[in-house]
Predict the structure.
Amino acid sequence: MLQAEVFGETVWTYRDERGYGPSLGLASHQHATREAAIQRLEQEERIRAATDVPDQLSRGAYEAACAAAGQEPLGDEEIRRMAYGLVYGEFSLPEYTSERIIQMRLGRRRLAAIESELRTWPVVIAPTTAAHPDEEISCPSCGRPTRRSMLMSASFGLVCPECYDEASERC
Ligand SMILES: [Zn+2]
């Protein structure tokens, strides 16, 4: 954040993560009033600060980021159900509220970690797979009890049959 003289007064201006800005000059052309321009910049800064976190978030890091932003964290299952929107959705002002933008951008970072965790999971359990194919385990995706031998390979990792069916229905 920078201070600058605009319209003869000192106001906050904003420089984004790529170094573009300060952007109040641009914003003032898009908003009817100086107040609207400043409000927009405050929203931009709030989004920037709330999403200034790593590209992948562990569950704990995700919940901490949500708490810092004053938001309820989404469940991992919910995040995975929203995967398409999280990955391909464009969430920006003014089409969405800053709260919604922060929620989706943090959710996207949690999704990236979930997908990464699922990709590495089979490697971790591989040594015991052959020894205990009927061992009772929790599905790595939904947590429901299942057996190792029942796991199926979905695009996002090994999952129980219920998860596999749910994923197929979505396609
Ligand atoms: Zn499952």
Remarks:
- The beta strands are 2-6, 9-13, 136-138, 145-147, 152-154, 157-159.
- The first helix runs from residue 24 to 30.
- The longest strand covers residues 2-6.
- The CA atoms of residues 136 and 147 lie 5 Å apart.
